[in-house]
Amino acid sequence: DASDIEKGPYPHYMLKEIDEQPSVIRNVVSKYQDRNGEIAIDSNIREAMKGSDRIYIIGCGTSFHAGLVGKQLLEKMADVPVEVHVASEFLYNRPILSGKPLFIMISQSGETADSRGVLVEIKKLGYRALTITNVAGSTLSREADYTLLTHAGPEIAVASTKAYTAQLAVLTILAYDCAKAKGMDIGFDPVGELSLAANAMEIMINRKEKMEEIVWSYLSATRNCFFIGRSVDYFVCLEGALKLKEISYIQAEGFAGGELKHGTIALIEEGTPVVALLTQASIAGNIRSNVQEVMARGASVCMISMEGLEESSDRLVIPKVHEYLAPLVSVIPLQLIAYYAALFRGCDVDKPRNLAKSVTVE
Ligand code: G6P
Hints:
The chain has helices spanning 2-7, 13-19, 21-31, 43-50, 61-78, 87-90, 113-124, 139-143, 162-181, 190-205, 208-219, 232-248, 284-296, 326-344, and strands at residues 54-59, 82-86, 101-107, 128-133, 146-149, 224-229, 251-256, 273-278, 300-306, 316-318. By secondary structure, it is an alpha/beta fold. The longest helix has 20 residues, at 162-181. 6-O-phosphono-alpha-D-glucopyranose binds at residues 60-63, 107-109, 112, 115, 158, 160, 355-359. Homodimer.
């Protein structure tokens, strides 16, 4: 049938979409380059960003996780305060808004009812919103003041992969453009760095057997799995854990390395798999000591580190990219681990139970 043709040689959409990621990132860059090859976004969006004193990012699921990374990008590059909220909670736990807020709705489908609920409410209050979406003409795009498209192409698998990395690329471009508009000299070349990140993603994608081996040795007979990281690695851990639980049904949780000792470490037993992520030089010592703590309690640790920060016992080393862009690369092995774990367990990779690609009820 038609869906088989679209899948081409791939057994699953998810694998196809994982593989497409390097070209998606290259495509996003080209879509946001002007005639001189410089990164440039719509001047109305630039003005809206410049004119706001605080950004409120709203999303659900994987798009919420992209928002967490986006907060770091915007704060570090453009020095603009950002809050990130889960859409379904925003209206109950409504933050006290700043004087000139700008809302950024992140949604692959642009149809998620929870996110739309927030948009409708803040529009009533007279605030402006920018939607970052993969679907031109979607509800959230039409109802917001501005749109930035993620240009990832249709995403069919329920578990989001290429839409997430495309969201990260667009957030990088937005943060860079915002910094530039404010006259900041941040010494970051988005075109060059994103292209290096795309190459690094490709290298990881070409090492699939390695991820299969990891699944075989850590996840073949487990009922749970923990992902630990600090700083931005923690946000990627949340996404890695979500991928694993969504499609393999292994109970998985992402934790901030420093929080382990405040409760979670009680769950570590002999053989409990722990995936640890390390891409940021500033937290290397701390996450390595968390790894020691869980190993001392019997955990079986799969350490994934970035070149330059690795130790010989690390299970996987990802190529070096700019620290801002590490999530684009470090998420790839986590996506593939989830994929192979689901395959290994005979799960329906593209259509996991109880989940829908786009959730249009609140
Ligand atoms: C659903 C999907 C998730 C997705 C979330 C948000 O729950 O199963 O994969 O992250 O909705 O979707 P959106 O289209 O708003 O990004």
